[in-house]
Design goal:
Strand order of the largest sheet of chain B: 2-3-1-4
Number of strands of chain A: 10
Helix content of chain B: 55-70%
Number of helices of chain B: 10
Structural class of chain B: alpha+beta
Shape of chain B: elongated
Order of helices and strands of chain B: HHEHEHEHEHHHHH
Largest sheet of chain B: 4 strands, antiparallel
Number of helices of chain A: 7
Strand order of the largest sheet of chain A: 6-7-8-3-9-10
Radius of gyration of chain A: 17 Å
Oligomer: heterodimer
Distance between the termini of chain A: 30 Å
Order of helices and strands of chain A: EEEHEEHEHHHEHEHEE
Largest interface: A-B, 26 and 19 residues
Structural class of chain A: alpha/beta
Bound molecules: adenosine-5'-triphosphate, magnesium ion
Chain lengths: 229, 314
C-alpha cells in the first residue's frame, strides 16, 4: 500500500537530510506506528505519502502508483484515498460538527444525498451521534479529535495518516482515540500514525518503525516504544 | 460538481471584502469609461478623416460656369477638357504631391449633401439654389509632407480652370491634434487607473486567500481539485468585472446619447457624421483596440488566475 525506495528528502539549505535513504513497505490493512525523537523525520515521511512534498531522490509508491512522478492534476485524486488527522485537529470554527465532516465530501463533489446518508453514519462511528449540531469550540479536545477523524474517514479512504493524534490529549482520552483508530483499521483501512506517546505504543501493540536522524533504525512487527538498545 | 459550497463562499467572499470589491468596481468603472471614450474619439477621428480628408490633403476646385470665386482663371467659364488635362499634368508632375483623386461634380455634390454642408432646403423644391451643375468638380491632392504645399499651391493657382484651392490643413490639423490629445489623454489616464484596479484585485485575492487559508488547507488535504478551490476567487473577480463593465457601458451609453446624439452632433455640423451606436458597440466588444468588456475581464481574471495558482497550488 505504501512503499518507500531509498527515499532521501533534503529541505532547502545546508544540513543533514530530513530522511536519508529510507526504504520501507507497509501492506494493505496494517497498523503502523512511526516513532522517533523530535526532528527524526516522521512528519516528513507522512507528507511524502500525501505528495505535499517530493523526495529529493528515491521513489514513493502509494496504492500502486509512483507518486513522486505523478502529474500535479492527479494529486487531488490521490489525496481522496488518504485521510489525514493532525495533533491540532484543524476543524473549521464557524461550521458545526456535521458541517465540518460534510465539508470533506462537498468539496470533492459528493451528492447531497450521499452526504446526508454518510455523515450521520460516520458521526455515529466516532461516537458523536448526538453532537452533530455543536460548534467545535463546544467540544472537548478528545471530541474535537473524533470530529477530525470522522472528517478524515468520511470518504472511506484506503489509508489513514495520523500525525501525533493524541499529542494534545490526556492519557484516558487518548485510549478512546486509539480504540477508534483501531476500529477504523479493522475495516481494512491502512493506518500510519506518527507518535511520541510511549504509553500508547506499549499498550496497543502494533508494528513499530523507528526513525533517527532520518534513518530507519528499527522495524518490528509488534514492537514497544522504548526499545532498549 | 456540487456548487453549493462555491456559491456560499462567493456570497461570503463578496460580503467579507465588500469595501475592497467596491473600490475595484469604482476604479474599473472610471478607467473603462475613459478607455471607451478614447475608442469613440479614435473612431470619430477616422470618420472625420474619411469625410474631410486628413491633414495631408488639399482640395483643388475646378471652375464652373459663372464661378462665384470671380477668379480670373475662370474667365472662360466652365473648365475645359484642355485646361483640366493641364491641371492633371501639373499635379502628377509636382514633387510635393504624393497622389491625387478626381472628384466629379456628382460625387462632390453627394458628399456635401451627406455631410450636411448643403442644407436640404437648398437642393429641394422646384427651383433649387444648388444643383449638381453648380457644384464644382475637383481634385483631392495628397501631399508627401503636410508642411510642404506652397509649391504646388502657387503652381496650380496660376492655371486656367482652377477656381479655389481649399487648404484646410491648418484647421484640420488643429482638430485632429485636439482629438489625438483627448484620445491619448483618456487612454493614459485609463491605463493608470487600470493598473490601480489590477493592484486592488491582487490585494483583494491576497486578503481573501488569507481569510480562507484554513478552508483551503483542508480542501487540499481531502483532495478538492485546484479549479474547485480557485472557483470562488474567480467568481468574485468575475462579479466585480461584470459590475464594473456594466457601469462603464452605461456611462458610455449616456455619453453617446446625451453627449453626442443630443449634444455635439446637433451643434458641431462640420465634423459630421458623428460616431453612432455601432461605434458604441465597438467600444464595448471590440478586439482592437480592445473594448471595455475584454479589458475588464482580462484585467480582473488574469491576475486572479495567476495569484490563485500561487495560493491554491496543490
Ligand atoms: N519545511 C521545512 N523546511 C526546512 N526544514 C524542515 C522543514 N520541515 C522539517 N524540517 C526539518 O526536517 C527534519 C525532520 O522534521 P520532521 O518535521 O519530519 O520531524 P518529526 O519527526 O516530525 O519531529 P516532531 O516529532 O517534532 O514532529 C527536522 O530537522 C526539521 O528541522
Ligand atoms: Mg512531526
Amino acid at each position: 500500500m505504501i512503499r518507500f525506495e531509498k527515499v532521501t528528502k533534503r529541505y532547502a539549505g545546508p544540513g543533514k537530510p530530513a530522511l536519508d535513504q529510507v526504504t520501507l513497505d507497509i501492506d494493505k490493512g496494517e497498523f503502523v506506528y512511526l516513532v522517533g525523537t523530535s526532528g527524526s523525520g516522521k512528519s516528513t515521511a507522512l507528507r511524502l505519502v500525501l505528495r505535499e512534498l517530493r523526495p529529493t531522490t528515491g521513489r514513493v509508491h502509494v496504492a500502486g502508483k509512483e507518486i513522486n512522478r505523478m502529474a500535479g492534476w492527479k494529486v487531488p485524486r490521490l489525496r481522496r484515498q488518504i485521510g489525514t488527522v493532525f495533533q491540532d485537529f484543524r476543524l473549521l470554527p464557524n461550521k458545526t460538527v456535521a458541517e465540518n465532516v460534510a465539508f470533506a465530501q462537498q468539496v470533492i463533489g459528493k451528492s447531497q444525498r450521499e452526504i446526508n446518508k454518510v455523515v450521520p453514519e460516520t458521526l455515529e462511528l466516532v461516537g458523536l451521534k448526538d453532537k452533530g449540531d455543536r460548534m467545535p469550540d463546544e467540544l472537548s479536545g478528545g471530541e474535537q479529535q473524533r470530529v477530525a477523524i470522522a472528517r478524515a474517514f468520511v470518504n472511506r479512504p484506503m489509508i489513514l495518516i495520523a500525525d501525533e493524534p493524541t499529542g494534545n490529549l490526556d492519557p484516558q482520552t487518548s485510549v478512546g482515540i486509539m480504540n477508534l483508530l483501531g476500529d477504523i483499521n479493522e475495516t481494512g483501512t491502512t493506518v500510519v500514525m506518527a507518535t511520541h506517546d510511549n504509553g500508547i505504543v506499549d499498550q496497543f501493540t502494533k508494528r513499530v518503525i523507528e526513525l533517527e536522524h532520518g534513518k530507519v533504525i528499527r522495524d518490528e512487527a509488534s514492537g514497544s516504544y522504548g526499545f532498549q538498545h | 460538481m456540487q456548487l453549493r459550497y462555491v456559491f456560499t463562499e462567493l456570497r461570503t467572499g463578496l460580503r467579507r471584502n465588500l469595501s475592497m470589491h467596491l473600490a475595484v468596481i469604482l476604479t474599473l468603472f472610471v478607467s473603462l469609461s475613459l478607455a471607451g471614450v478614447g475608442i469613440l474619439i479614435q473612431r470619430q477621428a477616422d470618420l472625420a478623416a474619411d469625410q474631410l480628408g486628413d491633414e495631408l490633403k488639399i482640395l483643388v476646385n475646378l471652375c464652373i460656369d459663372d464661378d462665384p470665386s470671380n477668379n480670373p482663371n475662370c474667365a472662360g467659364g466652365e473648365v475645359t477638357a484642355e485646361q483640366q488635362k493641364r491641371i492633371q499634368e501639373e499635379i502628377d508632375g509636382n514633387d510635393e504631391a504624393e497622389s491625387s483623386r478626381f472628384v466629379s461634380k456628382e460625387e462632390g455634390f453627394e458628399n456635401a449633401r451627406d455631410s450636411g454642408q448643403i442644407p436640404e432646403s437648398a437642393v429641394s423644391g422646384p427651383n433649387p439654389v444648388i444643383t449638381v451643375d453648380s457644384w464644382p468638380a475637383g481634385y483631392w491632392v495628397t501631399l508627401k509632407n503636410p508642411e510642404e504645399a506652397d509649391g504646388i499651391i502657387s503652381a496650380l493657382e496660376g492655371l486656367d480652370g482652377v477656381s479655389v484651392i481649399k487648404d484646410e490643413r491648418e484647421a484640420l490639423s488643429q482638430i485632429f491634434g485636439i482629438m489625438k490629445v483627448l484620445k491619448y489623454g483618456s487612454w493614459i489616464g485609463s491605463g493608470f487607473l487600470l493598473l490601480a484596479a489590477m493592484l486592488q484585485v491582487t490585494n483583494t485575492i491576497r486578503l481573501a486567500a488569507l481569510a480562507r487559508r484554513r478552508e483551503i488547507g483542508i480542501m487540499r488535504l481531502v483532495g478538492a481539485s485546484t479549479l474547485y478551490i480557485a472557483l470562488p476567487f474567480l467568481l468574485e473577480a468575475l462579479v466585480t468585472a461584470i459590475v464594473g463593465v456594466g457601469l462603464a457601458s452605461g456611462a458610455l451609453a449616456a455619453f453617446q446619447y446625451w453627449g453626442i446624439e443630443k449634444g455635439l452632433s446637433e451643434h458641431v455640423q462640420f465634423l459630421r457624421p458623428w460616431v453612432d451606436w455601432s461605434d458604441y458597440g465597438a467600444s464595448l466588444y471590440g478586439w482592437f483596440p480592445p473594448g471595455i468588456l475584454l479589458l475588464g475581464l482580462a484585467l480582473t481574471l488574469i491576475p486572479t488566475l495567476l495569484l490563485t495558482r500561487k495560493y491554491v497550488k496543490v
